[in-house]
Structure formats: structure tokens, C-alpha cells
Backbone:
């Protein structure tokens, strides 16, 4: 069978005919100089490669050192005090220090201060009014019971010896506070047309609760104007407005804002917040018990 | 004096990129002296080490070239071929050194 094939090697074509074919094509001759050249190139690579790696590491380390040095310079230059030493402007210093402490610029500080002061005053007024209404209606001084005369639910006496009046007052105070908190949140939702916002923060709510417990225990059943005023101030809306008003004051406000944020974060991380119903019951009980104890002490002194 | 040393160190630096040189030379007179001195120290330190590495590498390459020439002689490669091979190696070494860092 006639057979032929061609072998291409280095651009040359070798025609091999029947009877002339070999098992393998002819191998190219490798010159000794080429072999030595390849060996030399490998040797050069072995010299250059480690140096290149060392160079790269050194360059990265040096760039890092330059970056750190520059960052240190910028940090030193970035404090408001250092800049004040250059520009000597007190107004600019206060503004820069405020931004530095807040980590942002708070615009319209005066407007914010005025707005939140008015809001705080309004919530305090609401609280005061609710107490006033209670004192003039179901907690009236001369009232002897709640409910009908045939079926009294709770009875009172002149000196509130059972502590019922004080307990009811504490409960009412907490209830109105909750309503004020809900009202302020609702106002903000309506104003901003957003459902995901609220006015009262957890820390204001918590401070109002704690404040109410303290106030219920330590204020007498027959409250004086100062007690009424403190009671009116202790509500979530007024406390929140207070925080926000103080936060709007330059420089000092920055620290108030930082504390407010930190306290809220801390509170949100915590667990075991008492259910509101239990909270209100506990406060009323505490108020009742302290009133009874006080009456006992008065009796002892009198007898 | 310190400022001119700083400008020279930045301009001659083997580690800084063009953008970095431009930024550092933007207004060096407002930079604190301690910062300038530290930057000079860092840049010159790198350049010294880079030059040392380059010297060492060139010395090793030269020694390798001599060994290569001797090996060609030992194998009785013709002068013409030896010359051509050494020239080819020289060109390749040039390429390697140009691309090698700090060259």
C-alpha cells in the first residue's frame, strides 16, 4: 500500500515515501551553546527573583510607614484646638469642636432648641393639666370613695391611711405619661407622614418610669405645688424634649447627644424590661405601702 | 535647607509614585519639620536599601555572566557563536534589569 506523509519541522517540509519511512521523525540538534544559554538564564532568574520579592516587601512596608506618618500628622492637625491655635477665632473653634464631638454638623441649633423647648413645655403642661383634672374629679380631696355609695370600689379617708389615694395618683400619673408618650409619637408620625418614626426614645421612657416610681414614693399624698411641678416634668415627652433641647446647645449639647445615644444603645441591648401593666401595678403598690408606713409613723408620734 | 532636602528626597525617591510625589510637593512649606524629617528618613532609607540590593544583584549577574563565558569556552564553542550568545544574554539581562525593581 502506497503511503506517504510529510513532516514539518522548522519550516522545512520533508517528504517521506514508501520504504523510506522511519519510526520517529529526525530530532533537532540541540547546540551546546543553547543548552548553556538556557542554564545561564535559569541562574539569572534565581538571582533576580529573591531580590524582586525583597524589593516588593520593602516597598509595601515603606508605603505603610509613609501612610502612618501622614495619618498621624492629619490626626494632630485635625483637632479643633490645634486649628484654633492657627486661626484664633473663638466662633470657629466652638463650631469645629461641636462638629468634632458630634461627628457631624448639626444645623439650625437655635431653631431646634426653641422648638423642643416649646414641645417640652407643652407636654409638661399636659401632664400638669391631667393631674389637675384628677385632683378636681375622682381624686378630689373631699371624695370618700370611687364607685357608687352602695357599691364603693375604693374608699378613701381624710389622711389616706390606706394609701389608696396615693396609689391611684401614681397609677394615674403613669397612665397619663403613657398617653403623652403616645401622643408625641403620633404627632411626629403625622407631621413627617411616616409610620416608622417616633419621638420618645427608650431612655426617656425608662427615665420617666423610674422618675414616676421615685416621685410616687417620696411625694406626700397631699401634694404641694413643687411636687405637682416635678410630677408634671417627669413624663416621656418632656424628658425627650429636654434631651433634644439640650443637645441643640453648641459644644455642651454634643456631650448630651453622645450620652443620650450611648444610653439608648445600652438600654436597647438590655433585657428584662417589665411589662407595662406589671410596672404600673408595682408603682401603685409601692405608693400605697409608703403612704401606709408614713401614716403608721405619724400615729406612733401622735400617741 | 530641610525643605530642599525633602524636595530632593521626594523627587529622587524610588518608592513613590508620580501622584504621591505631586501631593507631597504641593505645599511642603506648610508641613511640620518633624514630619518632613521623618519622610526624608523613610524615603532615603528605602533608596539606600534599593541601591544596595541593585549593587548586589548586578555583582551576582556579572559573576554569572563570567561563569557562562567560561562554560562556553570549556565546551569549545566557536568565537563567532560565543560572541552571538553572549550578546543575546547581554540583551536579555538588560531587559531583566530594566524590569527588575529599583533599576
Residues:
Amino acid at each position: 500500500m502506497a503511503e506517504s506523509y510529510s513532516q514539518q519541522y522548522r519550516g522545512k517540509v520533508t517528504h517521506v515515501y514508501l520504504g523510506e519511512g522511519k519510526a520517529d521523525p529526525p530530532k533537532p540538534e540541540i547546540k551546546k551553546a543553547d543548552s548553556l544559554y538556557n542554564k545561564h538564564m535559569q541562574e539569572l532568574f534565581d538571582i533576580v527573583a529573591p531580590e524582586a520579592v525583597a524589593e516588593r516587601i520593602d516597598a509595601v512596608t515603606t508605603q505603610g510607614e509613609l501612610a502612618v506618618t501622614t495619618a498621624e500628622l492629619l490626626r494632630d492637625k485635625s483637632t479643633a484646638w490645634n486649628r484654633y491655635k492657627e486661626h484664633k477665632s473663638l466662633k470657629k473653634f466652638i463650631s469645629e469642636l461641636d462638629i468634632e464631638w458630634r461627628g457631624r454638623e448639626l444645623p439650625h441649633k437655635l431653631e431646634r432648641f426653641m422648638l423642643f423647648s416649646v414641645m417640652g413645655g407643652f407636654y409638661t403642661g399636659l401632664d400638669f393639666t391631667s393631674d389637675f383634672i384628677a385632683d378636681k374629679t375622682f381624686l378630689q380631696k373631699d371624695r370618700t370613695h370611687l364607685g357608687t355609695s352602695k357599691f364603693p370600689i375604693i374608699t378613701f379617708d381624710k389622711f389616706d391611711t390606706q394609701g389608696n389615694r396615693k396609689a391611684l395618683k401614681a397609677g394615674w400619673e403613669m397612665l397619663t405619661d403613657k398617653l403623652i408618650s403616645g401622643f408625641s409619637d403620633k404627632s411626629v408620625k403625622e407631621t413627617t407622614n411616616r409610620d416608622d418614626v417616633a419621638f420618645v426614645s427608650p431612655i426617656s421612657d425608662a427615665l420617666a418610669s423610674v422618675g414616676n416610681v421615685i416621685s410616687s414614693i417620696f411625694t406626700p399624698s397631699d401634694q404641694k405645688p413643687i411636687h405637682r411641678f416635678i410630677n408634671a416634668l417627669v413624663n416621656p415627652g418632656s424628658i425627650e424634649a429636654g434631651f433634644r433641647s439640650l443637645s441643640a446647645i453648641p459644644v455642651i449639647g454634643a456631650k448630651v447627644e453622645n450620652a443620650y445615644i450611648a444610653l439608648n444603645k445600652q438600654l436597647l441591648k438590655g433585657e428584662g424590661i417589665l411589662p407595662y401593666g406589671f410596672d404600673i401595678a408595682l408603682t401603685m403598690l409601692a405608693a400605697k405601702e409608703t403612704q401606709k408606713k408614713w401614716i403608721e409613723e405619724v400615729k406612733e408620734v401622735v400617741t | 535647607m530641610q525643605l530642599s532636602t525633602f524636595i530632593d528626597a521626594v523627587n529622587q525617591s524610588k518608592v513613590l509614585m508620580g501622584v504621591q510625589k505631586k501631593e507631597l510637593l504641593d505645599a511642603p512649606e506648610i508641613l511640620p519639620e518633624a514630619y518632613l524629617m521623618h519622610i526624608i528618613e523613610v524615603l532615603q532609607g528605602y533608596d539606600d536599601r534599593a541601591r544596595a540590593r541593585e549593587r548586589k544583584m548586578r555583582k551576582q549577574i556579572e559573576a554569572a555572566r563570567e561563569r557562562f563565558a567560561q562554560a562556553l569556552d570549556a565546551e569549545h564553542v566557536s568565537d563567532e557563536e560565543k560572541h552571538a550568545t553572549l550578546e543575546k544574554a547581554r540583551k536579555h539581562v538588560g531587559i531583566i534589569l530594566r524590569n527588575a525593581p529599583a533599576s
Summary: DSSP finds ten helices and four strands in chain A. The CA atoms of residues 292 and 298 of chain A lie 10 Å apart. Confidence is low (pLDDT under 50) at residues 1-10 of chain A.
